[in-house]
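Hi P.,

Sorry for the delay on this. The queue was packed all week, but I finally got your sequence through. Input first:
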Amino acid sequence: MSLDIQDEIHRFINVIRSKRFGKNDECLKNKASGLMEDGIPYFLDKSTRQINFSFERTPIKTYFKSSGLDKLDLKKLV
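Then the structure:
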């Protein structure tokens, strides 16, 4: 009997979720399909049905502008 109640609760949650967030799910599916079509490397975890994309790493570039670099103090920089 408790299994039937759990099934009904899950079904009810799925109905509410699809009504409230169905457009978001479709948008995310479209984005994922586009990334796959563009050749972005990805990993599909079949047990959780999640897609993990692997984007290239970019070096961090630090830019700061100061006219008095010779007077620069670490405390002021931080």
